[in-house]
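In the present case, backbone shapes were mapped to integers, as reproduced here:
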Amino acid sequence: MHPDSHSNRPTTKGRVGPKSTSHKTPGGTAQGRFYSAIKPAALQSKSVARLQASKATHLMPESIKLAVTHAGLKPLTDSQAQQFSTYAALLEHWNSKLNLTAIRDPKQILERHFVESIFCAQHLVGDPTTLLDFGSGAGFPGIPIAICRDDISITLLESTAKKASFLNEVVRSLGLSSKVFSSRAEAMPASQTYSAVTLRAVDKMELALPAAIARVKRGGHLALMTTTHSNWSSSLGELVQVSSLPLPNSSDRILAQFLKP
């Protein structure tokens, strides 16, 4: 991928987001877009500083660290907590324009989005080295996993261009090495698979599951963040369930993980 120093803030006119590079198959056909995550340090620092100096009500690092500890999870480092705080500020800033998440209350964002995603990061089975966050949307659980697990190479898959632009801005601002693939999963080469694929509950889960499963390599795992009453079991095909864990602060949400033999 080529470096790209363009800003990725939303605008009222024209194209939203940075320039991107095309990912090509051996046959030469462009298949989706991988966004560059490189941004000059000075520009990155200024944009983050502007967010933190704003009147936004985003979550502060200490509040995030306390919530994670109270949920019984491994504590965050100061650096990780600061990354989550910046992520919260970016989410609040962009959410008014893109409707990234229906949850807008900071406490709910902390419990439902951050803590649950951190739980997923700390309980992934199989020691994955590569991970695809399928239908990443606002970045859950992919961005929190990237913050907590720098040992995993992460790709955020999002077909909506404006949401992909938001993800790219988060990756840049937090200094993550994650890639953003702006297209549908079908646009990826058929041979491109991952040792883990994450999928959070979405509409028409029964349609999303086969496409997500196709991206899990043999011996890899699907990590599904869903509810106990969701009707998705008939779409699992050959997958074998290896764990089901209740998510923090919830009576019906779970992290279910499946092996692809």
